[in-house]
Amino acid sequence: MTTMNASTDIGFQDALESDADGLADLRVAAMRESLERVGRFDPIRARDRLLSSFDAAATRHILADGLRVGFFVVRTSAKEMLLDHLYIDPRHQGRGVGAAVLAKVFAEADRHCLDIRVGALKESASNHFYARHGFLPVAQDEWDIYYVRRHSAAVSHQGGFQSPR
Questions:
Q1: For residue 40, what are the CA distances in angstroms to 32, 71, 126, 142?
Q2: Strand 67-76 to strand 59-64: parallel, antiparallel, or no bridges (unpaired)?
Q3: How far, in Å, CA of 136 to CA of 155, rounded?
Q4: Which of 54, 49, 59, 68 is nearest to 14 (CA)?
Q5: Per residue in 146-164, pLDDT tens?
Q6: In angstroms, rounded to a whole number, what is the distance separating the alpha carbons of residues 81 and 118?
Q7: Which of 34, 102, 122, 157 is 20 to 30 A from residue 146's alpha carbon, by CA?
């Protein structure tokens, strides 16, 4: 098990179409515990959900000291960004890798004044992760909770303290 620390170098790399199967396997490993908790673990369905909408142009590998430890998918429209997938190998979770990904996504969203939407499986530890990073719940259905994180300009115009520039 690799231990992340302050000197871990987190980077990102564009995905290729040929990466799809390996990323689907990583998704299955990352989601297994949460899906088992709600009685919905089906590795074929978990793989197919990613593969049916895989878009290499929207997908980035997450690298920790040069090792691929996860991936994320961001779909951007004129109105918002959708963090459609964020999966980290279970052996590398809880070490700041996801926070580094969010910092990158937040910077891009704030630069373009876009809100970020994300959904998380009910009973998943990712719900706490997203709440801790400023996402607010806006809807839910039978299996998922949906969140939004407002871009920094929207937050500062809601009457909160805005530091001088």
A1: 9, 22, 16, 12
A2: antiparallel
A3: 12
A4: 59
A5: 999 999 877 665 544 333 3
A6: 9
A7: 157
